[in-house]
Structures are given as C-alpha cells and as structure tokens.
Amino acid sequence: MTQTIDLNSDMGESYGLYKMGSDEELMNYISSANIACGFHAGDPSIMRKTVQSAVTNQVAIGAHPGLPDLVGFGRRTMDITPEEGYDLILYQVGALSGIATAEGAVLHHVKPHGALYNMAAKNEALAEAIAKAVYQLNPELVLYGLAGSKLIEAGKKVGLKTASEVFADRTYQVDGSLTSRKAPNALILDPEEASKQVLRMVQEGNVLTEQGKEIDIVADTICIHGDGAHALAFAKQVHEKLSANGISIKRINE
Predict the structure, then answer these.
(1) Global pTM?
(2) Residue 65 to residue 196: CA distance in whole angstroms
(3) Strand 3-11 relative to strand 247-249, pairing
(4) What's the pLDDT band for 2 if we cut at 50, 70, 90?
(5) 160, 143 in Cβ contact below 8 A?
(6) Measured distance CA(170)–CA(70) in Å, rounded
(7) Around Cβ 242, how many Cβ atoms within 10 Å?
(8) What's the pLDDT score for residue 191?
(9) CA 249, CA 138: separation in Å to the nearest integer?
(10) Count of C-beta atoms within a 10 Å radius of residue 2
(11) What pLDDT, on the 0 to 100 scale, is given for residue 240?
C-alpha cells in the first residue's frame, strides 16, 4: 500500500494592506490550508480570497483560530478560561465556515494557532473545551493538534477525527513539545535539514530532540509555517523529498 501524508500550511495571515507569506505559490505544494480567522491575523476579505484560492487549487479548507492578539500575532500566552476558549473557537470557526459555504465549499478541519495551540497541548480543560466547540459546530470536522498532546486526546474523547501534527521547521523537546520560539534553536532554517526531519518522522515514527534523544512521534499531517522566511523553499523541498520516497501527499480522509 502506498504511504500517504497530509501537508498543511498556515495561511490567510495578511491583514488589510499588509501582506504576509506566499499563499498563492504555497497552494501548489500542500493538501490542506489552515486559514486565519481574524483574531491573530487575517480579515474578512483575506479569509474569503484564501478560501477561493484553496477551492481553485483543490486544497482542503481548515479554520486556524487564535487568541485575540493581532499585535503579538497570537503567539503570546493569555490567561483565558476554558469557557472563553470554547467561545473563541465557536466565533472564529463559525465565521470561516460561513465564508466557505458562500463560496460553495465545505470546512474540512480546525487547527488552533500559536499560543492557543500550545496551551491546549498541555491544558486538559482548555483542550476539552476546544474539542467540544469543534464537535458542537460539526462532528465531521477533523481536529488538528500537536502529536501526543492533550488536544489530540480531547478530540478523540469527544468523538472527533483527529490528525496528529508534526513540524518541518521546528525543533522538539524530550516531552514532545516544540522548542520555545524564544530559544535560539527553535526554528529549522535549512530546507534540506527540514525535509530529512520530515522523512524520519513519517517513515520511522521518531524525531531527534534538541537534547539528542530520540522520541517516538505520530505523524498524520506535516506543518510548514506560511509566515516563515523560507516557507516556499521548505514546501517545495519537503514535497519533492516525500514524492521521491514514494509518499503521496493527500488530505486527511481523502
């Protein structure tokens, strides 16, 4: 049987006149797009245009809800309650779902952004609130979360299809968490190194941490950050490396 993997990217993160990322070009290499919903980035027009682009390129449409922090790009931790997390998800995912419907498309998945994503990876109550909100909106949606995280556990518990996510352009800690962006080695800047890490995670089911320890990891979907300086080069390199090794790139549930 041919091995398959989903390749996703965070998109629609421009805002008004400010352009972020190379969304149009990236669409050629991915199978799923996580579209910002206006709280950490994006705006209604950007959301609609990104949905249209995903439809044109036959890329799965996902909501990428974040904390209400445009200045910090949603990457600063906020002390929110699980109830507030629930409401944030309902509001943002509901908005993108409405835009998708208007464009004749359907929402495929939900992937929290930035600090909200990392908080939900460790905070069980917040993870359960997010999973419940997604399920209440549409139990057919796929919940994307960090491999081995509380969010993946919560999604399964509530009855959602989940996708364990790994990262091409980030380094890992021994507990399976991502290295803090404040640390000097948080980001992988070499496309070749990134593609090797991806291949190892997909084929061998493990990753080498910053501490030099090998840990097991489940890879259902691979993320390439759309706002990264080398996002396009990364996407192209990873896509080529996977294809060259007989690994087909397909959306979850396809």
Answers:
(1) 0.95
(2) 30
(3) parallel
(4) low
(5) yes
(6) 22
(7) 22
(8) 87
(9) 25
(10) 7
(11) 93
- The residue type at 174: V
DSSP string, the chain: --EEEEEEEEE---BTTB--S-HHHHTTT-SEEEEE-SSSS--HHHHHHHHHHHHHTT-EEEEE---S-TTTTT-S-----HHHHHHHHHHHHHHHHHHHHHTT----EE---HHHHHHHHH-HHHHHHHHHHHHHH-TTSEEEEETTSHHHHHHHHHT-EEEEEEESSB-B-TTSPBPPTTSTTSB---HHHHHHHHHHHHHHSEEE-TTS-EEE---SEEEE-TTSTTHHHHHHHHHHHHHHTTEEE--TT-
Say how far apart CA 168 and CA 225 lie, in whole Å. Answer: 9
Model pLDDT for residues 74-105, shown as the tens digit of each residue: 999 999 999 999 999 999 999 999 999 999 99
With CA atoms as reference, report the closest residue to 231 among 200, 196, 189, 202. 189
